[in-house]
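Let's sit down with a protein and look at its sequence and fold side by side. Once you have written the record down, we can walk along the chain together.
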Amino acid sequence: MDLTIYLAGQIHDEWRNEIREKAKEKGLSINFTGPQENHELSDRIGEEILGEQPGKLFVDDAASDINNFRTELLLQKSDAVIALFGEKYKQWNTAMDAGIALKANKPLILIRPESLIHPLKELSNQANVTVETIDQAIDVLAYVFE
C-alpha cells in the first residue's frame, strides 16, 4: 500500500524534511506533497505567470490564486493531511489548509505543542488525531501499515 500525505504548514524551516526522513527510516511507503517550499517562488509566481502587477496587493493576490490552486489540487489528491502548528511562525496558512482538509473529509493529523492546546482546541477537536511531536505523527502513520 502506498499513501500520499499532504504536509500543511509554514515553509520557513526543515520540518517537512524531518518527516520525510523519519518515514523513510521506518520503511513507510508514503509520497509526501505540500505547498511550494521555495518561499521566493511562492511569492512571485503570480507575476511570473501573469506578468507584472500594478501594486503589492495585486502581486499578492495573483500569487495567492495560483498557490491556492496548487494547494487545493494536491490536497484533494492526498489520502490524508498532516498540519503542523509551531510556535515560531504565524500559522495562518496551516489553519487554512487544515480547514480545507476538514471540508474535503480528508483524515487529518494535527501536530501542535502543548503551549497551543488552548488556541487550537476547536481545530484539534475536529482533527482525527492530535499529537505534540513529529515522531508521534510518524508513529500514527506507521500504525496504518501494521
Notes: The first helix runs from residue 15 to 25. The longest strand covers residues 3-8. Helices lie at 15-25, 39-50, 56-77, 92-103, 121-126, 134-144. DSSP finds six helices and five strands in the chain.
